[in-house]
């Protein structure tokens, strides 16, 4: 079954850390760039980070740069997002998304999301 | 940084009517423009990639057009399940990040 399954979300205090995971199945994970996209409650979609297929190239949205680290383990078909120095404004549903097969500038597979609440 | 502006913010229509959604880019994005549908409590679903190509399993009533800075998503005849929020999105080779528009909510009139 072709799917992405996120885990690791929860409730954390400001300044603390958390690691999200995204388990991939049903496709050749190592062939695709992978992204994290988040959505604050009642708001639109916001791109967060990307890691290239081989893991050598990463890129971040400005507000998370220096605080979040994206990585992947192609032997485990898993994507990660290490989030440090969390802020209340990081509260959101976090989705992992796969770059498209036919249209690689789009995301043709999304996970169901994992929620993060940053609150004291 | 490319900014995507979607209009209108809300579209109130009846089932069977035609929906026309707009996405304007602050500079040319060539044809690197995608459309997504999102229903409450669900993840986004890819509808259209590269401006005009329907994703796998997407009904023919959904079509995309445009290039450069102006893009349109058309739903030819709204079905009850089409009432949702729609987002446009751009990504390029470098920088490899993505940009989303603010969304258009298609609601039942």
Question: Descriptors for this entry?
Answer:
heterodimer, A: mainly beta, four-stranded antiparallel sheet, 11 strands, 51% strand, B: 109 residues, mainly beta, 0% helix, 50% strand
Task: Describe the model.
The complex is a heterodimer of chains A (120) and B (109). In chain A, the strands form two sheets. In chain A, strands 2, 4, 5, 6, 9, 10 and 11 form a seven-stranded mixed β-sheet that branches. Chain A contains no helices and eleven strands. Chain A has strands at residues 3-7, 10-12, 18-25, 34-39, 45-51, 58-60, 68-73, 78-83, 92-99, 107-110, 114-118. Chain A is an all-beta fold and 120 residues long. The mean pLDDT of chain A is 97. Chain B contains no helices and eleven strands. Chain B has strands at 4-7, 10-13, 19-25, 33-38, 45-49, 53-54, 62-67, 70-75, 85-91, 98-100, 104-108. In chain B, the strands form two sheets. In chain B, strands 2, 4, 5, 6, 9, 10 and 11 form a seven-stranded mixed β-sheet that branches. A four-stranded antiparallel β-sheet of chain B has the order 1-3-8-7, with no helix packed on it. Classes of the chains: A mainly beta (120), B mainly beta (109). Chain A binds chain B through residues 33, 35, 37, 44-47, 49-50, 52, 57, 59-61, 95, 100, 102-103, 105-108, 110-113, and chain B through 32, 34, 36, 38, 43-46, 49-50, 53, 55-56, 87, 89-92, 95-103.
Q: Beta fraction of the residues of chain B?
A: over 45%
Categorize the overall geometry of chain A: globular
Helical content class of chain B: under 10%
Please compute the radius of gyration of chain A using only Cα atoms.
14 Å
Q: C-alpha Rg of chain B, in Å? A: 13 Å
List SSEs of chain B in N-to-C order: EEEEEEEEEEE
Largest interface: A-B, 26 and 27 residues
General shape of chain B: globular
Structural class of chain B: mainly beta
Our measurement of the CA-to-CA distance between the termini of chain A, rounded to an integer number of angstroms, reads 39 Å
Query: Can you count the beta strands of chain B?
Result: 11
What's the helical proportion of residues of chain A? under 10%
Supply the helix-strand structural class of chain A: mainly beta
Distance between the terminal alpha carbons of chain B, to the nearest Å?
Answer: 36 Å
Q: Which regions of chain B contain 5 or more consecutive residues with pLDDT less than 50?
A: none
Helix and strand pattern of chain A: EEEEEEEEEEE
- Strand tally of chain A is 11
Contiguous helical run count of chain B: 0
